[in-house]
């Protein structure tokens, strides 16, 4: 019996072999994200990069008995970290502090993401790139502009990770309904900051929530990160839940690359949905495949309330996106 189990486990893990890099692996998100990626059987080569401390994180997670090698890299070794990558996940940057919005992080994190994007363009231009660094509404356009300037932009391979908004929506509605949150599947569209986050509860079993309950629920999904920032009292923002969200989305991208069917996640991508309104990037359900983005799905039927939320999100996103694009134009 044991030999059959061992053989089956080995064959499933060896069927798909991928190199994944985590840029910012020694940070509050990076460390637990690195742990979770070590547990993914599709990851056979895990490259952990940071300005400092990555070799220590790598040594630590390397002792976990899964079928992957782990190596830590520092700035002088970034070429080695990125070469041959299938997926690059970027949680690098500074965390929020009480009173800060995600947009307040822009000036610091924009430079970090721009410089990492330049290295990705040079050493792993074909990788799927997953942006966690906030503000995602602006950092994803930054990466796009850098890739365009280097002649390697592939809109099917660039993703803003909005999965934490989905996890929060599932959790918070389950608390109200008294259900198992792992069985809830709330679609969240728009962007990944405050009023750009639009959970579509009308497309669930909870379309008839009382107005005050619905309004509080939507606000909590939009600003759930503030709960964590305040509870940590200046010591950081959402790291553990964000790491889980990042690992889930990275796992879905890997499943898509492996050709698995019906891999669908919301993500902030170069989208045709509202381009005629000047919204170049938008989060909606995306089917993932071997080429990255396979299908970008429309929003579906919305309630009048949600139509209003989407309108506000679009108006805000235009400015967020332009902010990232302008940054690269002014700071190439």
From TrEMBL:
NCBIfam families: MDH_euk_gproteo. Residues 162-327 form the Lactate/malate dehydrogenase C-terminal domain. SUPFAM superfamilies: LDH C-terminal domain-like, NAD(P)-binding Rossmann-fold domains. GO terms for biological process: malate metabolic process; tricarboxylic acid cycle. Its EC number is 1.1.1.37. PANTHER family: MALATE AND LACTATE DEHYDROGENASE, MALATE DEHYDROGENASE, MITOCHONDRIAL. GO terms for cellular component: mitochondrion. InterPro entries: L-lactate/malate_DH, Lactate/malate_DH_C, Lactate/malate_DH_N, Lactate_DH/Glyco_Ohase_4_C, Malate_DH_AS, Malate_DH_type1, NAD(P)-bd_dom_sf. This is Malate dehydrogenase. Pfam families: Ldh_1_C, Ldh_1_N. Substrate binds at residues 96, 102, 134, 168.
């Amino acid at each position: 019996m044991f030999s059959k189990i061992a053989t089956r486990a080995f064959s499933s893990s060896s069927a798909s072999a991928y190199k994944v890099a985590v840029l910012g692996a020694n940070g509050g998100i990076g460390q637990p994200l690195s742990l979770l990626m070590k547990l993914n059987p599709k990851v056979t080569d895990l490259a952990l990069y940071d300005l400092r401390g990555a070799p220590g994180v790598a040594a630590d997670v390397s002792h976990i008995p899964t079928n992957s090698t782990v190596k830590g890299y520092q700035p002088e070794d970034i070429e080695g970290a990125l070469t041959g990558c299938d997926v690059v996940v970027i949680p690098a940057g500074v965390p929020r502090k009480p009173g800060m919005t995600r947009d307040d992080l822009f000036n610091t994190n924009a430079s970090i993401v721009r410089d990492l994007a330049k290295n990705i363009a040079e050493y792993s231009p074909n990788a799927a790139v997953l942006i966690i660094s906030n503000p995602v509404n602006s950092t994803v356009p930054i990466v796009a502009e850098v890739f365009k300037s280097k002649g390697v932009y592939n809109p099917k391979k660039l993703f803003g990770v909005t999965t934490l908004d989905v996890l929060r929506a599932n959790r918070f509605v389950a608390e109200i309904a008294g259900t198992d949150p792992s069985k809830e599947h709330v679609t969240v569209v728009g962007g990944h900051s405050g009023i750009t986050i639009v959970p579509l509860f009308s497309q669930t079993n909870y379309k008839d929530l009382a107005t005050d309950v619905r309004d509080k629920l939507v606000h909590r999904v939009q600003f759930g990160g503030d709960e964590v920032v305040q509870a940590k009292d200046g010591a950081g923002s959402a790291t553990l839940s964000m790491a889980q969200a990042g690992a889930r989305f990275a796992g879905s991208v890997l499943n898509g690359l492996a050709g698995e069917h019906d891999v669908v996640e919301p993500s902030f991508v170069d989208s045709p949905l509202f381009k005629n309104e000047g919204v170049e990037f938008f989060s909606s359900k995306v089917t993932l495949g071997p080429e990255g983005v396979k299908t970008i799905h429309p929003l579906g039927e919305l309630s009048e309330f949600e139509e209003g939320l989407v309108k506000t999100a679009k108006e805000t996103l235009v400015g967020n996106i332009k902010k990232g694009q302008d940054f690269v134009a002014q700071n190439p």
